[in-house]
Amino acid sequence: MTTRAITNTTAITMDPARRVIENATILMEADRITAVGPASEISVPIEADRIAGEDMITLPGLIDSHAHAGHGLTRNLGGGDGDAWFQACEDIYTRGSTPGFWQAEARLSGLERLKAGITTCTMLLGGGADHYRTDTTEAGDLHCAATREIGIRTMLAVGLNRRPFPKRYTSLDLARDITLSFEDQMAVCGELAQNHNDLLDSRTGICLIMPVYSPAEATQDPDEICQMCDAAMALREKHGLRFTQDGHREGSIALAESFGILGPWAYLSHSVDLTAEDMEAAKRSGASIVHNPSAIMSVLGRCPAPELREMGVNVALGSDAAAPDRGYDMFRHMAQCLHYHRRHFRDPEVMMPLDVLEMCTIDAAKAIGLEDELGSLEVGKKADIILLDRRKPHLYPPMMPLTTVAQFANAADVDTVIVNGEIRMQNRRTALDEGAILDAAAQELQEAVARCDLTHLLAEQGAAG
After folding, report:
1. pLDDT tens-digit profile of 357-369?
2. Could you tell me the sign of the dihedral formed by the alpha carbons of 88, 90, 94, 98, in that order?
């Protein structure tokens, strides 16, 4: 059993007391934290593998509560033309992708998350506009295999396309057209849940996703939508899954409650321009909200994250990465969150550094039902820990660590990443063939856009020549 010790560090624990400990020691045995406290109170075993924490800020591993598989390769397509980008995602994900595409994207996004200090992330298996690659288990299997290779945790959101069905796909070997039904997708989701739902120990979990319906859409065929919701909830209950949705706004949360798809096992992304009924439904049901302050939906509308938190609703932070205009840098998204709401209220104290740190650590762990296992540096919890190199001009002088992390740090400051007690990155070096991951990603994108006749979307808008 490996014993490790982080010594002489500044520890932001995110424990119930929200302790920030200077000159701290953190002990780990195997995959669990066994001690956290001032160095004067903790004896380091002579056999321990020591990690020098001088000039480091140590945090629980960051948790990104909303992102998309596939988007890591399509992130720049269209050069800012949102409609073209959405259509490209549909074309590639449903008719122009191969096993190599999904494998390369999973490795690329996993590497980016690892180097940004994200130890756990919810990844939607597709999306853009409710196009999920659940015609077979292959894309999901490949993503989970890549997660284990990279060494982080992924909660993979698999699920159901928007009605009407059936949907037209092309098989991943590009050999035949597929007519995909709601029942087909349900069966594949169930199989993925059987094979990959062990987030804590195998580092891959499965949650279920289905489209958000607006009140206007619900009037078109409420019986069919109710039947779909009932079937999805039966599958969720059978496998004990979490449930997430992408794109709530303007009455849709209250509607979701009426369909019986809200509960403390649900976490709902974007959630902009909410009605009072939406906010009360979130509180009443115990559902969490995932705020994505850097997303386009947060330009087109506003998530009332401070107001929801004041009501007692759990709010987590998501990157909505990696496309079309953002990445997995959760430090950027923390700072964006602060400025977003301060500007709205014209008040520089509406949200504070501790608030946004909670939203991507302990509150994010609560959203996935694992606040007793992840999200803070506490004895007995999983040893998911990151260290930031503080000895840099933009992080000096060495004071006020909460403010330093939330307002000045960036992904490139992450020096060391530990997941399940295993060192996955140290001195910003991994054991992965990073060059091969990057080269495969570039090759797969070029082949996908050529296959789908989308090479024109690689042109920079406004570029000379």
Report:
1. 999 999 999 999 9
2. positive
